[in-house]
Amino acid sequence: MHPKILAIESSCDETSASVISNGKVLNNVIASQSVHHKYGGVVPELASRAHQKNIVHIVNEALRSSGINTEELDAIAFTKGPGLLGSLLVGVSFAKSMALALDIPLIEVNHMQAHVLSHFIEDPKPGFPFLCLTVSGGHTQIILVKEHLDFTVIGETQDDAVGEAFDKAAKIMGLPYPGGPMIDRLAKDGNPDAFVFPYTSMPSYNFSFSGIKTAFLYFIRDELAKNPSFIEERKNDISASIQKHLVKMLLEKLEKASFELNIKEIAIAGGVSANSGLRSALKVKGKQLGWNTFIPDFQYCTDNAAMVAMVAHYKYLNNIFTDLNASPLARMPIDAK
Is the model's pTM score more than 0.85? Predict the structure, then answer.
C-alpha cells in the first residue's frame, strides 16, 4: 500500500498544503498572513477571509510541485481542530468538496497530534514510547506516545498556554506582535539571571502560567514607577530572565515525567519549540540526564500541512477515515484514533 494524500492545514493564520506519498512528505507549502501584525494578534474574521483567498493557490502549488495529479490521490486530509472555527471551516469545507468530487476518502486530523508526529517527517525519529512536550500559543501538554496513533495526555496547563505567556510578557513590555519570537531575539543579548519571577507549581505533570504572568505585570509596573526608561534600558535582561523562567517551568515537569515513567526518548513540538532558549536548554538537560532528544526543524514547529499529512499517512494505513459529516464544531481529543 503506497497512499498518496493531500493534506490541508488552516487552524489559525497559516494556509498550508502538503502532499505525502508512501510516508514521504514531498512538499510543505505555506502562506502566512501579515494582516494581523497591526492589530497585535490574530483577528479570527480576517484569518478566515485570508484562508479563502489563499487556499486554492496553495493547494494547486502543492499538487504542482509534488508532480502528483488529483486523479492519483488516494485521500484528502484536513485539520479538524483545535483552532479558530472560521479558519477551520475553510479547510474542512475545501477538503470535503475535493474528496467528494474525486470520490476518495476523507481523513480528519487533530492539530496537536499532528505537531507530535512532525518528528516522523525526517530523521532522526524518536523510538516508542516517548514523551513529547507540545507547546504553542494555545496549548501546553506532556504527551505519552506509545505508537504513531496511541497518545495519552499526562499533563497540561490548567489555565494559560506557555506561548500565550510569552506573548503577554512581550505585550506588557510594549514589544510588537508576534511577541514571543521578539523576546527570544532580545534574550540572546541579555542576562537570564538578572531578575527572578515567582511562579505556581502544580501537582503531577500539570502547568499553570497565570501566576508568572501576573508577577511579571506587577514587576514591570513597579520598576517603571521608579524609572520610566526601565524597559528600554533593560529589555534584553528582562527578556532573558522571563524566558529562562518559562523554560525552567516546562523542563521541570518534563524531567519529572521522564524520571517517574523511566522514559528517556524526549521530544518537543509546537510553535514554541522554535524558541532558541527552549531548544538549547533541552539539549543541555538531555546531556545531563542521558536523554535522546528530538527537536523538529523550524519549518515543522509552526503550523504546517506536512505534519497533518504524516498523521494522515498512518490513519490511511489503519483504515481510519471520516465522512462528509465531519465538522470542527465537534471536539476531537488528541487520543482519538
Answer: yes
